[in-house]
Amino acid sequence: MTPATQPQTRLAVLHGGELPPGSARLDDHPGLASVRYATADRLGEVLPGADALFVWDLFSEALEAAWPKADSLRWVHAATAGVDNLMFDGLVGSDVVVTNSRGVFDEPMAEYVLGLVIAFAKDLPATLGHQSRREWRHRETERVGGKHALVIGTGPIGRAIARRLRAVGMTVEGAGRTARPEDPDFGTVVEASQDTAAPGLAEALPRADYVVLAAPLTDATRDLADAAFLARMRPGARLINVGRGPLVDEDALVRALHAGSIAGAALDVARTEPLPADSPLWDAPGALVSPHMSGDVVGWLDELVDLFTDNLDRYLDGNPLRNVVDKSRGYVSGP
């Protein structure tokens, strides 16, 4: 990418009604000729002439509709780890560089997954239910150590999850694009595929007490956890999705939970967000639903802005950007 001429660089910021914290850092940045802010409905007004776009409206798909107005755009930075909302044909086929916010969410999401595993094993949802009804009901709970987890998605978030689970004595297996017998975080990685008849994944699913979805949403992973996938899980296993909602066939999941073919599911993401009030997932047996919050810890918004401003300085100085996305697959390349 050709270094930007600092005094002429114009930045557009797509936001959802609230500006990034510390936005004065952008307004007063000496390398920017202008900073223009817009919500999704006004994005087309600020894109003409803009060299860079900061997508602060985290899951917005507004750029696709406004794309014809992007006459000077050279770089798009997403304040998210997943970039599936940006992978439309116009952007993918262009020379525009896309970067994301990899690294901000890894450890918080790994802690969240560990918390969900412990909540399931120690039956904490039932304990809260009994408490709300003032019931003193003794039960036995499960061990966490010695259980087997299959983490689908071997990127930075999946690796952080694997390290956390191994630290409490669980055995962990990974599923990713490429199978490999030895991996420092997963031990063994099998090939993940939309076709659950793929030998590696088909054999790995029945081994797992916990199946964790931490993969990006791509054509290959959409509806990965379908009826056939769920049927291969063991009856006492739990599914945890902290990736993207469309990784899971929700109708098939509801049927599996009601049939008892799996023991539970924790969903931090949904196909439609917010999850509609009439969704059967809310009261499906063994379901834990949270509002897309697994990576959102105190200070996370500041971290996102810090990462962007570091990349902005790199862009203005003509240095390599962090977290460059391979647009052909929606994955991050490089360290």
Automatic annotation (TrEMBL):
Domain D-isomer specific 2-hydroxyacid dehydrogenase catalytic: 39-325
Transmembrane segments: none
CDD domains on file: 2-Hacid_dh_1
Residues annotated as domain D-isomer specific 2-hydroxyacid dehydrogenase NAD-binding: 114-294
One protein family per Pfam: 2-Hacid_dh_C
Superkingdom to which the source organism belongs: Bacteria
Cross-referenced InterPro entries: D-isomer_2_OHA_DH_cat_dom (IPR006139), D-isomer_DH_CS (IPR029753), D-isomer_DH_NAD-bd (IPR006140), NAD(P)-bd_dom_sf (IPR036291)
Keyword entries, A-Z: NAD, Oxidoreductase
PANTHER family: 2-HACID_DH_C DOMAIN-CONTAINING PROTEIN, D-ISOMER SPECIFIC 2-HYDROXYACID DEHYDROGENASE NAD-BINDING DOMAIN-CONTAINING PROTEIN
Family: Belongs to the D-isomer specific 2-hydroxyacid dehydrogenase family.
Protein name: D-2-hydroxyacid dehydrogenase
